[in-house]
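Input sequence (153 aa), recorded before submission:
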Amino acid sequence: MATVKTSVAAMEIDGLAPTLRAFNTYGKDANRELRDASGEIARKTSEQATARGSGIGRQAALAASSLRVARDRVPAVQMGGAKRVGHRSTPVGVLIFGAEFGGRGRSTTMQFLPHRGRDGYFLFPTIRARGLDDTATYLRHLDALGTRWAAGG
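Predicted structure, C-alpha cell format:
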C-alpha cells in the first residue's frame, strides 16, 4: 500500500528567491542559522496543529501526530509517512487527506468528518491563524541575519 507524505507552501513573499540565493553566498553557517530560525516558526505551527488535531477525532489525532518540522530555509512542516498507527496498523500517510479535509463522499471515506473543501480541520486553519505573525517573524529573521552576514558574519 502506498503512503503519502506532503508539505504545503502557505507563505508567499515577493523577493524571497533572490534573498535565499544571496544567503548561498554567505556560506553554510548563515544558511544553518536561517534553517534554525525557520524551524522554530514551523515547530510552533506544528505543535499548535497537533494539539488542534488531537481534539477533533481519532483519525485527525493520528494524522496530526505525524506532523514534523522540515529542515528548510523557509518554515515548513511535513505530515504523513509510512509510520503505522491505529488498531489496524494503517500507514499514517493514508489518513492525512481524509483527516485534514474530511470525507463521507464515498463509502470508503465514511470514517472521516464531513468534507470541508480546502478549509481543513487542523493544519490549514492553524497555518492561516498564524500566517501574518509567522510571516512577520520570518521577515525579521531574514533581515537580521541578512544584515549580519552581508557585513561579514
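Checked by second reader. The two ends are 48 Å apart (CA to CA).
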